[in-house]
Design a protein that fits this description.
Helix content: 25-40%
CATH superfamily of the largest domain: Hypothetical protein af1432
Number of helices: 29
Strand order of the largest sheet: 2-1-5-4-3
CATH architecture of the largest domain: Orthogonal Bundle
Number of domains: 5
Strand content: 15-25%
Shape: elongated
CATH topology of the largest domain: Hypothetical protein af1432
Number of strands: 20
Length: about 700
């Protein structure tokens, strides 16, 4: 370029965006400082090189065709073009950009100026939106509650179900498509005696705009029976704040055991915003204390609707900046003199009256004496980015509202780099159940909130949920503080990334009721079998003592206790004339008696609450050498809990009188157990038992 063009080079060098100037042969004749920063090249490495060196090889042929068409078209010499493509960094990676091509006629010929705008930020925003949607999808798919939306009408009989989640199949025995085919199917399935109550509650929600809990009966059409439903009815508002429908979450509380707890929201689907961010470039010259526009790029007409001539008016900027933003935009102008650069965001009013958000970047050019002389800058349309930010904020608010309206505790936790687990979101119900303020829970260590977790396998399971995407469930999480001592049912679901959500509820009363029921069953069995008074209690205590000494966890001890209480439950199926017979049993009678472990398994295995306690009732008559029954298991094929119980059961049975013999002395019992080590009993269990007896 000639010396007469030095002013243009200085101006382009001050641009905030990367700029390339190419001649008619598409050779690079100038690059500004911003471009060398952006792509990692020096200007010397690029000057006189074909523009194609900056185009990734995959797109190079297509680019050359486009460039040839642009240069050969006479109209290209009077118009600007914007093109979305990838550009090559010096380290060979490809960067997404918008390139604005503008004709430029100088004294020494015709050139094309390419202004480059980096699109990486907008791609990151799109990925953030996708991640947010993925979290919502995971919550919906893993919720155990049924979520719904109802469209209202003047007559409640005409209310229609707009949406109902797939879990309706578990509660009603119908599919989503069944409800879609008959939008009133769900409402028609409410018990006739409860329908007026539901209608009244729903109308109160519409009238007051406040959520309302409700319990009613709902017909399971597959099972042909009514289920008891706990519902949380919430108003659905339009943009004006008017109630236009109802939404809620219902769960089946008929069953004594709920395997999962979940949370779900009915939010509007987020739309993906495809960003297109063309840039208007401009130059200003200072006159006195005022900035006078010198130049604007021609794409200002396409973006804002104003011609270049209109935009060069000294008062134009003041009239197109949104009135609510003008004062703040002017107030920060002094930073341009302090820092030689200025970045600000405000709104422009287009000529057609529409509003767009602008990201304004300015660079100050000083003369040789350091006095402000000119400024160059760019206006970038960031309307789509602002919409994305608002969408993300709305989704976060929706997530918080969903969590806070849930009828059970919900805690979202995050795995930190140091492997600790911190709570990042909690709902009101969780605060109440844990008797803690929200501030005391947020950013708190999970193990500090649940200190008893340190004694269980739960912390490792919480980390496993995040690392593997698996789920975790327990009904034996003990929580104790100054105000609460009870048991939580916990269901943990991954949310993606390094976060997961813990759903929990207090089942202390339910757990206590289960334990008392088991003790009642055990006592009834002792009475029928005419066992020695206290046999089951003593053998249970000894079994737990051995298991604890062998290092079994609290959760395992709970299941062992239940199994010990129910060890002879299968004898309920043995006829009295065999069970209570004083004489020796015949071969046929003995064959029936030996089936009682199988009967116990058949009676109890369908009860999920007792499934992990079945090893003792089913296997306590197996022997270490394989001579036991019912399956002839040998060695470690026999579950550890059953091996432990076998020692405790024989120890107690031999010490006390039975109708057919007197009890043995302690020394004789211990000698017998030593002698049966490796035959009837596991030698390791015998060793632990003898240490306990000695102490």
């Amino acid at each position: 370029m000639e010396t007469s063009d030095q002013f243009l080079k200085q101006t382009l060098d001050a641009f905030c965006d990367p700029v390339i100037l190419v001649n008619q042969r598409m050779q690079i004749v100038f690059v500004n400082a911003r471009l060398t920063e952006f792509l990692g090249y020096t200007s010397g490495e690029l000057l006189d090189q074909p523009l194609a060196v900056l185009i990734p090889e995959t797109f190079r042929e297509q680019h050359q065709e486009y460039a040839a068409a642009f240069m050969s078209n006479p109209s290209a010499r009077t118009m600007s073009k914007i093109r979305r493509l990838w550009i090559r960094h010096k380290d060979a990676c490809s960067l997404p950009v918008d390139i604005s091509l503008s004709p430029l006629r100088l004294e020494n010929g015709f050139y094309v100026m390419a202004v480059i705008h980096d699109l990486r930020h907008y791609i990151d925003m799109e990925q953030a939106l996708r991640a947010s949607e993925e979290k919502y999808r995971l919550l919906v798919e893993n919720a155990s509650e049924v979520f719904y939306q109802i469209q209202l009408a003047d007559d409640p009989k005409e209310w229609k179900t707009l949406y109902i989640s797939q879990q309706i199949n578990d509660v009603m025995g119908v599919s989503q498509s069944d409800v879609a085919a008959n939008p009133q199917l769900w409402l028609q399935s409410i018990h006739p005696q409860d329908l007026p109550k539901f209608t009244k509650a729903a109308q109160e929600v519409v009238a007051t705009g406040e959520k309302k809990p409700l319990v009613y009966r709902l017909l399971n059409r597959r099972a042909g029976e009514y289920r008891v439903i706990e519902d949380q009815i919430v108003p659905l508002f339009d943009d004006s704040g008017r109630v236009v429908g109802l939404q809620g979450a219902m769960r089946d509380v008929t069953e004594k055991e709920l395997n999962t707890k979940a949370i779900q929201t009915l939010t509007d689907q987020l739309q993906h915003y495809l960003t297109k961010s063309p840039t208007i470039t401009y130059a200003l010259r200072i006159q006195g204390r005022l900035w006078v526009p010198m130049w604007k790029s021609e794409n200002i007409y396409r973006i804002l609707g104003y011609s270049v001539e209109e935009s060069l008016s000294s008062t134009w900027w003041d009239t197109v900046v949104h009135p609510d933003d003008l004062e703040s935009a002017v107030a920060c102008s002094s930073k341009l003199y302090e820092d030689d650069s200025l970045t600000r965001e405000y709104r422009f009013v287009r000529k057609d009256g529409s509003i767009i958000w602008i990201h304004d970047e300015m660079r100050l050019i000083r003369d040789q004496n350091g006095n402000p002389m000119e400024a160059v800058g760019s206006w970038t349309d960031i309307t789509e980015r602002k919409k994305m930010e608002e969408a993300l904020l709305t989704s976060q608010e929706n997530l918080n509202n969903m969590i806070n309206s849930a009828p059970f505790g919900a805690l979202i936790y995050e795995l930190q780099q140091d492997d600790t687990l911190l709570f990042v979101a909690v709902n009101d119900t969780a605060c109440k159940l844990l008797s803690k303020e929200r501030g005391a829970l947020l950013r708190s260590n999970v193990e500090a909130v649940f200190p008893l977790l340190c004694q269980t396998e739960v912390p490792s399971e919480l980390r496993k949920v995040i690392r593997t995407g698996s789920k975790f469930y327990t009904d034996q999480l003990r929580y104790k503080d100054q105000q609460f001592d009870g048991v939580f049912e916990v269901h943990v679901v991954p949310l993606g990334g390094k976060t997961a959500v813990i759903f929990f509820r207090n089942i202390s009363e339910l757990a206590q009721a289960y334990e008392e029921t088991l003790e009642g069953w055990s006592h009834a069995m002792d009475l029928r079998d005419k066992e020695t008074e206290g046999h089951t209690r003593r053998v249970t205590q000894m079994t737990l003592a051995i298991a604890q000494s062998m290092g079994l966890s609290e959760t395992e001890l709970t299941h062992i206790r239940r199994g010990a209480l129910l060890h002879d439950m299968g004898k309920m199926a043995i006829p009295d004339h065999i069970l209570l017979k004083q004489d020796t049993l015949s071969d046929e009678e003995w064959a029936i008696m030996k089936k009682h472990p199988v009967f116990a398994y058949e009676m109890l295995h369908s009860i999920s609450f007792l499934r992990q306690a079945l090893d003792i009732p089913y296997c306590h008559h197996e022997k270490w050498d394989g001579s036991g029954y019912p399956r002839g298991l040998k060695g470690e094929e026999i579950p550890l809990s059953a091996r432990i119980f076998a020692v405790a059961d024989v120890w107690d049975a031999l010490r006390y009188d039975r109708p057919y013999r007197k009890g043995w002395t302690s020394e004789k019992v211990l000698e017998y157990i030593r002698e049966q080590s490796g035959k009837h009993f596991d030698p390791n269990v015998v060793e632990v038992f003898l240490k306990i007896e000695k102490n």
